[in-house]
Amino acid sequence: MPVITFANTKGGAGKTTAVMLLATELERMGYRVTILDADPQYWINRWSETTGDRTTIKVIPYVTMASIERLITEYKAVSDFILVDLPGARSPLLAKTIGYSDHVLIPIQGCAMDAQGGAHVIELLQYLEDKASIRIPHSVVLTRVNSMVTTRALQVVKQLLAERRVHVLDTPIIERAAFRDIFSSGGTLYTMDPASVTNLYKAQENARAFAEEILSYAAMRLALTHVGAKAGMTPQVRTAA
Ligand SMILES: Nc1ncnc2c1ncn2[C@@H]1O[C@H](COP(=O)(O)OP(=O)(O)OP(=O)(O)O)[C@@H](O)[C@H]1O
Ligand SMILES: [Mg+2]
Questions:
Q1: Whole-Å CA distances, 234 to 75, 221, 222
Q2: CA-to-CA distance for 43 and 17, rounded, in angstroms?
């Protein structure tokens, strides 16, 4: 029952979108997912209301400092994954939630401001490791990447992360209309109409690759052993940089 937290103290980095994509892919693979929605805009809760009741994705809105610990304990018992969508600002919830996480994902767009918000999260993780010997595996996922162009800004961000020896997922989340539209249409990438959404199949492929890569990490694999491999997944272990 791994807890995966999405964090970047810079607003608009793509946290909520990444949570949504991962949750719906995990659901497709047969896992039960609980999303703890601590984003004050409650996009995922709104998506859940538009989409209607689902048995395999449970969305808990209005998560606060006072409730997070209880909610994680409570939903760990009935979920294969807990995903936490944090606010895009500095908040005490960040440090508290990180402490309960098995993995922290840091979405970063190829721009300096986003990278700075991500660096704040990475510094906090580093602090926990140095001062309290608590090592929480973490990875950066590059978001809103242009499918056609490799921008200079993106290269700079990648280089910066490599210098700091921060692990970056091989799969970036590409800028796709489908990833925006899912919030207004409700449902998933698989209930959308391919005739009315540009490059829907490419969006599906990207979301699938993103979810599969996350599942391939050793920490996930260990935490999943008692859940049992579902959907014929064969996780590969990759070492963080
Ligand atoms: N890969 C993508 N393709 C297209 N649009 C995207 C993508 N990722 C994010 N967006 C759009 O960018 C905006 C910000 O994304 P999102 O809400 O996921 O970021 P966030 O980090 O959760 O923001 P906040 O910090 O405000 O909670 C939204 O309008 C979203 O639809
Ligand atoms: Mg958000």
A1: 26, 10, 13
A2: 9
Domain ranges in the chain? Answer: 3-224
Side-chain half-sphere of 175: how many Cα atoms within 13 Å? Answer: 11
pLDDT score recorded for residue 234: 37
- As assigned by CATH, the class of the 3-224 domain is alpha beta
Q: Supply the pLDDT for residue 166.
A: 87
Q: Whose structure tokens read 């940089």?
A: 241
Helix axes 15-28, 177-185, angle to 10 degrees: 80
| Residue to mutate (ligand 1; options 6, 9, 10, 17; most atoms within 8 A of CB) | 17
pLDDT of 232 reads 40
In degrees, rounded to 5, the angle at the alpha carbon of residue 84 between the alpha carbons of residues 132 and 18 is: 115
For residue 228, the model assigns a pLDDT of 46
Across 61-183, the runs of DSSP E, i.e. the strands, are 81-85, 103-109, 138-143
From the CA of 87, give the closest atom in ligand 1: 27
b/e map 38-57, b = 16+ CB within 10 Å = bbeebbbbbbbeebeeeebb
CB 160 within 8 A of CB 115: yes
Ligand 2: distance of its center to the CA of 132 in Å?
Answer: 29
- Residue 176 tokens read as 């796709």
Closest-CA residue to 210 (of 182, 176, 169, 154): 169
Q: Which amino acid is at 13?
A: A
| Mean pLDDT, 10 residues at a time, the chain of 241 residues | 92 95 95 96 93 86 95 95 94 93 90 76 90 91 80 74 84 94 94 94 97 79 51 37 33
